[in-house]
Design brief:
Layout: H1 8-14, H2 32-45, H3 59-71, H4 74-88
Length: 116
């Protein structure tokens, strides 16, 4: 398991929520956990899909699964279910604060005129 991959505890929560593979759809689905870890790697890094490491399977599989599940609302449904479960268990703290002293703009973004 690579850094950032789903832990066994996280997978135990997520796996039962995933849609069942549809019959008659192409070949056998690969290891779902591996593909989801590939999708999460890509989302975390912001790298191009073609740069998804081989340990997650073919990049195109990760891309197609992500795209298909985005189009049919699977990702939104998973998010709602996981958030609902965490909120019911008291694991979410909705109080958030932002400390603006750590948000710095580049000197050129300060609005000064060019050339002094």
């Amino acid at each position: 398991m690579a850094r950032g991959d789903l832990t066994d505890a996280e997978w135990a929560i997520l796996e039962p929520l995933l849609p069942a593979p549809k019959p008659g759809r192409g070949g056998r689905w690969g290891d779902r956990r591996r593909v989801i870890n590939g999708i999460l790697w890509r989302m975390r890094t912001g790298a191009p899909w073609r740069d998804v490491p081989e340990r997650y399977g073919p990049w195109k599989t990760c891309y197609e699964r992500y795209r298909r599940w985005a189009a049919d609302g699977t990702w939104a449904r998973l998010k709602r279910q996981v958030q609902g479960r965490a909120e019911a268990e008291g694991d979410i703290d909705w109080n958030a604060q932002v400390d603006s002293t750590i948000v710095r703009a580049h000197q050129h973004a300060a609005g000064a005129r060019k050339g002094g």
